[in-house]
Amino acid sequence: MSIKNTIDLTKLPSHIAIIMDGNGRWAQEKGQDRLYGHFHGVESVRNIVEGAAELGLKYLTLYAFSTENWDRPEQEVTGLMELLVETIRKEVPTLQKNNIRLHVIGATHLLPAYAQTALQEALNMTASATGLNLVMALSYSSRWELVNAIKQIALGVKNNQIEPEEIDHNTLQHYLSTSDFPDPELMIRTSGEFRISNFLLYQLAYAELYFTDTRWPDFRKENLYEAILDFQRRERRFGKTSSQVKV
Ligand code: IPE
Ligand code: IPE
Ligand code: MG
Questions:
Q1: Alpha carbon of 144 to those of 7, 138, 139: distances in Å?
Q2: Which of 25, 40, 77, 138 to mutate to test the pocket of ligand 1 (most atoms within 8 A of CB)?
């Protein structure tokens, strides 16, 4: 039986979030420029999006570029932006064909104008899709997002639209860039790093974390299936005892 067939489709995580890491090292280990790794990373994105859609997953968030990544050498940042635009343009027909809706979270106003235009077009062209929701985290950081949310809540209080006593989890959730999506149930990070790197800090509160040494350009559907199977073997207790969650 193939590994895919051992997945319990009735117990899929509703939302998987992935920190796609290791492109640079993958390339450098081959004596190549870091951009070569990003280029090959796109192949993994294609493969994983296809795998997620085939399984019937509802939400997949991919961390593609962090706020902190703006501080990388200019040549790498420019290369990444060009790759982003080229990939989006090329992939929109496939997204449409597979009923995949694209979303973007992050400070996208910082992206170059040509990238913002390409993104907006892709968002519009996939807006009516009802299958997989593909969320790209671009120029994203969790601290940026939380500070933004708090600013908006503070403004609401100032304008008498929000009562401070009534602020709760739902209020904060409403002002996050992920307000339309459920929290990730499974978070995967590739490349052997064991950290969150400013990704969905609030939303990952009860996510199951899965780390693999596989570099992102080598990550394929089978690796995704393995992560899902690992997730399905875990007991999620949400603060309760094991016997409580078994009933
Ligand atoms: C992830 O790979 C892609 C981005 C952050 C844009 P890296 O570029 O971080 O690759 P490593 O971690 O340096 O190997
Ligand atoms: C996190 O990877 C961001 C993305 C994958 C887009 P980084 O490579 O930037 O993270 P650090 O610097 O190793 O923590
Ligand atoms: Mg990295």
A1: 36, 12, 10
A2: 25
Task: State the fold for domain 10-141+183-246.
Answer: Undecaprenyl pyrophosphate synthetase (3.40.1180)
Distance between Cα 70 and ligand 2 center (Å): 11
Cα-Cα-Cα-Cα dihedral of 119, 122, 123, 129, to 10°? -160
| pLDDT tens profile 209-221 | 999 999 999 999 9
CA distance 196 to 137: 14
Q: How many CA atoms lie within 13 A of 38 on its CB side?
A: 17
* 61 pocket-lining for ligand 2 (C-beta < 6 Å): no
Q: Is 69 among the catalytic positions?
A: yes
Q: Which DSSP string corresponds to 96-150?
A: HHTTPEEEEES-GGGS-HHHHHHHHHHHHHTTT--S-EEEEEEEE-HHHHHHHHH
Q: Is 64 in the pocket of ligand 2 (CB under 6 A)?
A: yes
d(CA 200, CA 44): 22
Structure tokens at 183: 């929290």
Cβ atoms of residues 18 and 61 within 8 Å: yes
Ion ligand 3 residue ranges (Cβ < 5 Å): 21
Distance from residue 211's CA to the centre of ligand 3 (Å): 14
DSSP 244: H
What is the Å distance from ligand 3's center to 14 Cα?
26
pLDDT per position as a tens digit, 15-66 = 999 999 999 999 999 999 999 999 999 999 999 999 999 999 999 999 999 9
